[in-house]
Amino acid sequence: MPALFARVTKSPGLVHLAIPVVLVLLVLTASNNDYWIFLLTSAAVAYVLTASFNIVFGYAGLFSMASIAFYGIGAYASVYAELHWGWSFWLATPFGVLVAAAIGAIVIMPVSHLRDIFLAIATLAFAVAVSEIIAQWTSVTGGTGGIYAITPPSSGELTFVGGSVSFLWLCVAIVWAVVELTWRISRSAYGRKLVTLRETPNALAGSGIDAGKLRISVFALSSGLAGLAGSMYAHFQLTISPEAFSFDRLIQLLLATVLGGAGTFLGPILGVIALVAMAEIGVHLGRAENLVYGLAVVVLMSVGRQGIVGMVKSLVSARRRTPGPRSDQPAAAPPEPIPVDEQPQASLEIRDVSVQFGGVRAVHGVSLRVDPGRVVGLVGPNGAGKTSLFNAVTGEVASTSGEVLLSGETLDRHRPDAVRRAGIARTFQLPTLVPHLTLLENVMVGGEIRSKAGLARQMVYGGATRRDDADHRAEALHLLNELGIGHRADGRAAEQPYGVQRLAEIARNLMLRPSVLLLDEPGAGLTTEEREELRAVLKRLRERGLATLLIDHNIAFVAQASDHLAVMAQGELIVEGEPADVLAHNRVIEAYLGSAGGARV
Amino acid sequence: MQTILIILSQAGVLAPLAVGVALVYRLSKVINFAAGTMSVFLGYCAASFDNSVPGVIITLLLGCLVGVVGYLTSVLPAQYMKVPPVGIALATLGFALALQAAGEMIFGGSAEAANAWVEGAVQFAGVNLAYQRLIAIGIGIGITVLVVIVFDRTMIGRTMEACAGDENLAQLYGIRPRGFHLLAWGVAGACCAVTGILQVGLASISGPLSMQLLNLAIIGAVLGGIGGLAASSLGVLAVATVTAVCQQYVNSNFVLTPILILLLLGLLVRPQGIFQSKLTADRT
Fold first, then answer.
1. Least CA distance to A304: which residue of chain B?
2. Mean of the per-residue pLDDT values for chain A?
3. CA B55, B64, B170 angle in degrees (round to 5)?
4. CB distance B83 to A297 below 8 Å
5. How many CB atoms lie within 10 A of CB A163?
6. Distance between CA A294 and CA A291 in Å, rounded?
7. How many CB pairs under 8 A join A and B?
8. What is the mean pLDDT of chain B?
9. pLDDT (tens digit, 9 = 90+) per residue, B27-63?
10. 8 Å CB contact between B71 and B181
11. Nearest residue, CB atoms, B260 vs list A125, A291, A295
12. Residue B144 belongs to some domain of the structure
């Protein structure tokens, strides 16, 4: 059995191809049994709802408790369009989906900046308010009594009555479409961005990606899918009331997602199967049903966030014990390198920049210039203001005064992602890689800045998006090879040694094709050999024509790697010039060692 | 006067619950989604003793026990497995489900009420003030102030703050963080018991009430500033005020919608909490 799971989890493509076949077989098998038809239709609705929550919570890490509200909104909006405007199911359902998606986008806007748990509370408050409005807005929703006698969908002579085989076929077709969409998202650049949003949101801005826009898009997508599930439910039951969108349904939704494995393609499928099985057992348990549900949630959350999929994966990896991607042996020969002949050239000029935090003056009137094909080292004791200067250049903090010019043009530094798109990339003191993604995928995230396809096209992962992806994959692999870590491309970032993570972060920045690269202590924590590799990388960056500004505390390393050296102390630039001259300067010796007079005292 | 009384009694009932939620959050950064169910379960327990003094004492002790069991079953194992706070919050939701089912099996699912501690009322400014309501307000506020003082103004609170900041560092100074987690959850459980006891004495208690109590308490705590105990209880007062005013003067059918609007406005204008210093907030 674990071997079968190993094949499935290693090649989810097999599952993807098998799903329509399995769905058809299930319907054919159940078509003579009313109870099985009912059960499968319920499971289909539950799957669409669970998939919607899995996208927003599992992939993007946004703990939205409003999914149940959008489920209700989709149901009521589609039924309202049918009853009051005479629309058919085929028009009313997309309308319900659009209404849910639009409200989802509007709701997330004011609260998208909140941290996970606070977002959960804000969305929970929204869900509760929606349930109250549904219960009280009698003229539209029928109040607590709900709406009865909903017209079943029809097409020509064929009517899809809820509970019949024809309606089950309709649900199965929708499920297949949702499975396909989820599959494509899990493979696409959009999916990688969602995982980045979940695990390392800071890396998004660092790759020139607008995290706010991404949050709104995924929330709208998830809300729309929940609305679709709502419309399916309404036309299945042919009656709706506020109780159908209650807290109990929310608990089931959370449970199915958590049970199956949040953030996995197979999770919602396995979660719904487990939930249906538990419901069947619950029929025999009576009042103890919730007790079993509750204990299952407690146990599964204690095990981890990946539920059944995660547990099976752990079992499989424990059994296999094969060498992982940490092996230092090179993988198969890399494809032909792609010449990076589009390296943009620009000079960076920092002009009289100051940064103040309350009463603390972190940077005071610093001016510095970095030309293409030059490496400028920036050193200084701790607290000299070097990183604050970087932060001011890249928009991570607002400067109090001064300006930054890129090839003579003043840079708008209000948003870090806009600075990246302008051509200034940077690394941080600690590598900001997405632990769950492979090194290759991490570097590919940097290529998103040049994607021709928008978010909507990325979601459906069509031809243009696949071509984008193939280009990014090839370029990312080339960069990893250039930095000497190509053989680790398929290893997860979290499993890589520190030095490799450092180099991978540089590769991701190079994927942005920047004209200027700011490196904040790239040599920190590296061994002597790794530092030598880094120096070779810096040499290659210079040859590419990149303007590089380098901070490090290892003076010898910076002096050897730089063409020009600048020294900061107490927020000011005290000396700059040729590395050898600067290091011999009295003010530099004084900044590091203190004055001779001071020492005597 | 009547509106003020309604505001104070609702705040008196909810404030201990909100302070319990804030206390747990402060130490472990976990929102206890089981708080409402714990209050209802303990309210049923108090009702089964008809809110007698020994019954109240037993309910308070049981509250501590329920809190500790909640920590040991839904939080400690997840923390050990390094599950993120969102996952642990989901685990508390599972604990709530299990506790609700246990409550239904033990006490049945129907609404329950208890006799007032003191019968009668006093006339003030033309309004009839029931002694029970005045006592409930006094107890709610008194308990809340006591918890705030103990955990904000004494060495216990400062040590707990040290654990919240950096457990490893706290251990180096001889502090046992697990003991403080147990203390926080035990006190939070007792706070839930106080809410349940007051609610069952003033009106009635039933299963569906757990969601409403949880919503009002959590929204109040977040609105006020969940990092601070006093700020959380003041947030609950704000929620009670808006609810009562809207019910009295706008539309009596809408209880939660005005609170959602208040919460969204609060998060937009002052994301760290209306009554919380920006320097100590950590929600964005």
1. B83
2. 84
3. 160
4. no
5. 15
6. 5
7. 138
8. 87
9. 888 889 999 999 999 999 999 988 888 999 999 999 9
10. yes
11. A125
12. yes
Task: Indicate the residue of B81, B101, B222 with minimum beta-carbon distance to A291.
Answer: B101
What percent helix, strand, coil does chain A show, rounded to 5? 60, 10, 25
Helices (H), B173-228: 177-202, 209-224
In this structure, are residues A133 and B257 in contact, taking their beta carbons and an 8 Å threshold? yes
**Coil, helix or strand for B50?**
coil
Ramachandran category for residue A358: left, alpha or beta (phi over 0 → left; psi -120 to 50 → alpha): left
Count how many domains chain B has.
1
Q: Which residue of A has its CA nearest to B272?
A: A114
User: Is it the case that residue A132 has pLDDT exceeding 90?
Assistant: no
Residues of A in contact with B253 (CB under 8 A): 132, 136
Give the amino acid at A334.
P
Q: How far apart are CA B62 and CA B135, in angstroms?
A: 22
Task: Name the phi and psi angles at A414, rounded to 5.
Answer: -75, -30
Question: Chain A: which residues have CB within 8 Å of chain B?
Answer: 61, 63, 110-111, 113-118, 120-122, 124-126, 128-129, 132-133, 136, 247, 251, 254, 258, 287-291, 293-298, 300-305
Report d(CA A256, CA A265) in Å as an integer: 13
User: Any CB–CB contact under 8 A between B66 and chain A?
Assistant: no
Residues facing A155 on adjacent strands: A158
Q: Which uninterrupted H or E stretch holds A346?
A: none
Render pLDDT for A556-584 as a digit per residue (tens, 0 to 9).
888 888 999 999 988 898 889 998 888 88
B24 phi and psi, to 5 degrees?
Answer: -65, -40
Q: Residue B103 falls within a domain, yes or no? A: no
For position B197, which CATH number holds? 1.10.3470
The residues in B 239-268 lying below 8 A from A, measured between CB atoms, are 253-257, 259-260, 263-264, 267-268
Using a pLDDT cut of 70, give the percent of chain B over it: 97
Taking every pair of Cα atoms in chain A, the longest distance, rounded to a whole number of angstroms, is: 102
Domain holding B84, by residue range, is 2-96+128-280
- In this structure, are strands A424-426 and A348-357 parallel, antiparallel, or unpaired? unpaired
As given in the structure block, the two tokens for residue B37 are 């169910």
Q: Name the percent of chain A lying above pLDDT 70.
A: 90
Handedness of CA B49, B52, B55, B60 (dihedral sign): positive
CA contacts within 13 A on the Cβ side of B231: 20
* Overall fold of domain A344-423+514-601: Rossmann fold (3.40.50)
Pick from A114, A290, A297: CB nearest B284: A114
Q: Between A110, A115, A129, which is nearest B268 by CB? A: A110
CA A154 to chain centre: 40
Q: Which amino acid is at A267?
A: G
Q: Taking the mean position of all CA atoms in its chain, how far away is CA B18? A: 3
- Degrees (nearest 5) of the Cα angle A519, A539, A382? 30
Under DSSP, the state recorded for A431 is -
The answer to whether the Cβ–Cβ distance between B74 and A301 falls below 8 Å is yes
Q: Does the ipTM surpass 0.90?
A: no
Q: Where are the beta strands (DSSP E) in A81-188?
A: 154-155, 158-159
* Residue B174 maps to a domain: yes
Contact B259 A287 (CB under 8 A): no
Q: Where are the domains of chain A?
A: 14-245, 344-423+514-601, 435-513
Residue A470 token pair: 């193939």
Q: What span, in angstroms and rounded, lies between the C-alpha atoms of A267 and A307?
A: 8
Q: Could you identify the residue written with the tokens 């632990």?
A: A435
Q: Does A329 score more than 70 pLDDT?
A: no
Q: Please provide the DSSP assignment of A442-497 as one string.
A: HHHHGGGGG-SS-HHHHHHT-HHHHHHHHHHHHHHHHHHHHTT-GGGTTSBGGGS-
- And the tokens for B173? 């100074």
Helix (H), strand (E) at residue A77: helix A67-85
According to DSSP, the β-strands at A409-410 and A158-159 are unpaired
